[in-house]
Amino acid sequence: MPNRKVVVLGSKGVGKTSIIQRFVSNGFCQEYTPTIENTFQKTLTCNGMKYDLTLVDTRGQDKYATSITSYTGATDGFVLVYNVCDTKSFELVSTLNEEIQFETGGTALIVVGNMTDLENERQVSNEQGKELAEKLNCEFVECSAKENININKVFQAVLEEIEKGNGSKKQTGKKENENCIIL
């Protein structure tokens, strides 16, 4: 069973840990506790093939302290997370992408807007997220870890992007992500 390593990056407090914990254990913690770095495992079946996902939960980044060099070596894909209620976290996604492209020469990634449950506080529109993802030539997902909205879709999308890059994506005639099962 192939192992795929996915690194989750973004500003402090955007919900990286919450997204991963919701995906791995269906849990959600209301309290914010800064992360240094944690690693999680989860099995995902996609297009008839089982994958062991290793998910790396990173410490929050900021535009002055983005150092992703240590994550780029054996990483198959990146999830770049921003908070839809925080324009600065959204702006950091482009900086993180530039670093990833510089370090790797190009690797699978997706852009994720989290905290859609806080619609009244939204500063970044869905359209802005889509436009950025289109500019970066990647998939885009909006989610809410708190409400468990589109969490599985985040990891299905990054796995699809990884497999597209590996040339092993099966042509099933089905819509992408339609044939993925979380175990």
TrEMBL record:
<dbReference type="InterPro" id="IPR005225">
    <property type="entry name" value="Small_GTP-bd"/>
</dbReference>
<dbReference type="GO" id="GO:0016020">
    <property type="term" value="C:membrane"/>
</dbReference>
<dbReference type="Pfam" id="PF00071">
    <property type="entry name" value="Ras"/>
</dbReference>
<dbReference type="GO" id="GO:0007165">
    <property type="term" value="P:signal transduction"/>
</dbReference>
<dbReference type="InterPro" id="IPR027417">
    <property type="entry name" value="P-loop_NTPase"/>
</dbReference>
<protein>
    <submittedName>
        <fullName>Gtp-binding protein rheb</fullName>
    </submittedName>
</protein>
<dbReference type="GO" id="GO:0005525">
    <property type="term" value="F:GTP binding"/>
</dbReference>
<dbReference type="InterPro" id="IPR020849">
    <property type="entry name" value="Small_GTPase_Ras-type"/>
</dbReference>
<dbReference type="GO" id="GO:0003924">
    <property type="term" value="F:GTPase activity"/>
</dbReference>
<keyword id="KW-0342">GTP-binding</keyword>
<dbReference type="InterPro" id="IPR001806">
    <property type="entry name" value="Small_GTPase"/>
</dbReference>
<keyword id="KW-0547">Nucleotide-binding</keyword>
